[in-house]
Amino acid sequence: MPLQLGLVGLPNVGKSTLFNALTQAGAAVANYPFTTIDPNIGVVPVPDERLEKIAALVQPEKTVPTTLRVVDIAGLVKGASQGEGLGNQFLSHIREVDAIAMVVRCFEAEDVPHVTPYLDPIEDIETIELELILSDLEILNRHLERVRTRAKSRPRDFAGELKALESLAQALSQGTPIRALELDEAQQAALRSLNLLTAKPRLYVANVSEDQLPEGGELAQKVKEKAATEGAEAIALCAALEAELASWEKEEARAYLAEVGLEAPGLERFIWAGYRLLDYITFFTTTGGREVRAWTLRRGQTALEAAAKIHTDMAKGFIRAEVIHYTDLLAAGSFANAREKGLLRLEGKDYIVQDGDVIHIRFHN
User: How do strand 318-325 and strand 345-347 relate by DSSP bridges?
Assistant: First the structure.
């Protein structure tokens, strides 16, 4: 399963524009609320220069990047948890994602009305956060009632779970998102099946105008400061510009971005911010001259877990992993040279995979 990010935000903040720029999927975009009626889902290839360099060395028939799955739902408005607007109807579509990307409007545009009479990104963040908290509280309270019912006949069996759930419900009632809490083991266990939105890591996306690049301006800075207080990730980008550049030749787009002071497209920065947020890494595989492929793992996962990512049969029949870091492979110039120089290592199933490893799994059927 690829990394999954859910896009949330108020109407007319640029969510669908960002979604289209990422996926080039052609989701409807207009300057009025609730253009996105049904949730949009897209799969985005993750750009990675390391993969390109390995492919240039190996010259495979096929090069396969790892992917990002993006889910865009209708804009949320104040009162969404009580049925206002449309966004709350689709929150269930992002309960399975790994992290929430909150798109915040930081640009002025007379032809794009905002849902409030003034532009205040921090107030907008608080509005969305409250709706997510209220939605989570509704889910948690329903679950709590079911557990209380089961506990009537076996109170001792459910005492710990009830205590954990009640403490979490109290925190939400006080306006505290789950991710801001230091959870004990009982609370973590109680949450495992609920997929609460406020428990998910948060990425803030300050959507700015092109003339505010590269830093994003005063409003974007407020969003970054807000993110810093939470230990969250934040980036500033211009979704409208990114959507336009998505149709340009790659070199032309990068040259234009350099003119406005950006080293990489906002879309790449968006994707890699998601990777940092979730502490993901990338490893690579080569299949003779046929294929070079990138794969995603959580930092700290093992060679056995990498094998399972590729195919369950590889994990079941795992013998050992042949490993070389991509920088060593490039320096050697070929797998044959790397093998002669002793740069290829044999590792067991408990080896902790490192970002940039090139791995060949040896296994028996």
Answer: antiparallel
